[in-house]
Design a protein that fits this description.
Number of helices of chain A: 0
Strand content of chain A: over 45%
Order of helices and strands of chain A: EEEEEEEEEEE
Number of strands of chain A: 11
Oligomer: heterodimer
Structural class of chain B: mainly beta
Structural class of chain A: mainly beta
Shape of chain B: globular
Strand content of chain B: over 45%
Largest interface: A-B, 22 and 23 residues
Largest sheet of chain A: 7 strands, mixed
Chain lengths: 116, 106
């Protein structure tokens, strides 16, 4: 089974801090994703990566950056944390797109981040 | 927005009953996926249906797709307490709806 591991289940940081959220997958998937999930808003895509050192902005990239130096690891960076970034962050991975078929995503259990 | 939208937002039924959730979307799709999320956990992929398929089954799950109406439904038969979760449809390029919260009453 695919395992997607997020480094922390709960994290508390202060406004203005630089925050790193780490995600590792063990199935050699090409694609990796970062979402945030907020009540009433569902899942919103922040960034995704379809290959090492490649990244694309999702729907809400402002205030975030990402890093993918190795295929199995995808990091989300909050450059200067703000209270409106308090949220549940979910990482996912999937095989590359085959033709037009979007492959199923495998999710980690999430990091609940609180910015004070 | 290309986001799929699930309906209803919340659903409570008795254990043993069938649960039906719907998803509507706005743009043409190649496939549609359904996911489940247990409280405090990540999403789990349930089933994928391609645009040229009308119905698909997996255990107690039955998914239908009507591309002319841009809608899909997820039916869970003989519901169990363990089915209590939020259910999401995902369309196109990684676009999730806001989910249906399903609560199974004992």
């Amino acid at each position: 089974d695919v395992k997607v591991t997020q480094s922390s289940r709960y994290l508390v940081k202060r406004t203005g801090e630089k925050v790193f959220l780490e995600c590792v997958q063990d199935m050699d998937h090409e694609n990796m994703f970062w979402y945030r999930q907020d009540p009433g808003l569902g899942l919103r895509l922040i960034y995704f990566s379809y290959d090492v050192k490649m990244k694309e902005k999702g729907d809400i990239p402002e205030g975030y950056s990402v890093s993918r130096e190795k295929k199995e690891r995808f990091s989300l960076i909050l450059e200067s944390a703000s209270t409106n970034q308090t949220s549940m962050y979910l990482c996912a991975s999937s095989l590359g797109i085959t033709g037009h078929l979007i492959q199923p995503q495998h999710f980690g259990d999430g990091t609940r981040l609180s910015i004070l | 927005s290309q986001q799929g939208e699930e309906d209803p937002q919340a659903l409570s039924i008795q254990e043993g009953e069938n649960a039906t959730m719907n998803c509507s979307y706005k743009t043409s799709i190649n496939n549609l996926q359904w996911y489940r999320q247990n409280s405090g956990r990540g999403l789990v992929h349930l089933i994928l249906i391609r645009s040229n398929e009308r119905e698909k089954h997996s255990g107690r799950l039955r998914v239908t797709l009507d591309t002319s109406k841009k809608s899909s439904s997820l039916l869970i038969t003989a519901s169990r307490a363990a089915d209590t979760a939020s259910y999401f449809c995902a369309t196109g390029k990684i676009i999730f709806g806001k989910g249906t919260r399903l609560h199974i009453l004992p």
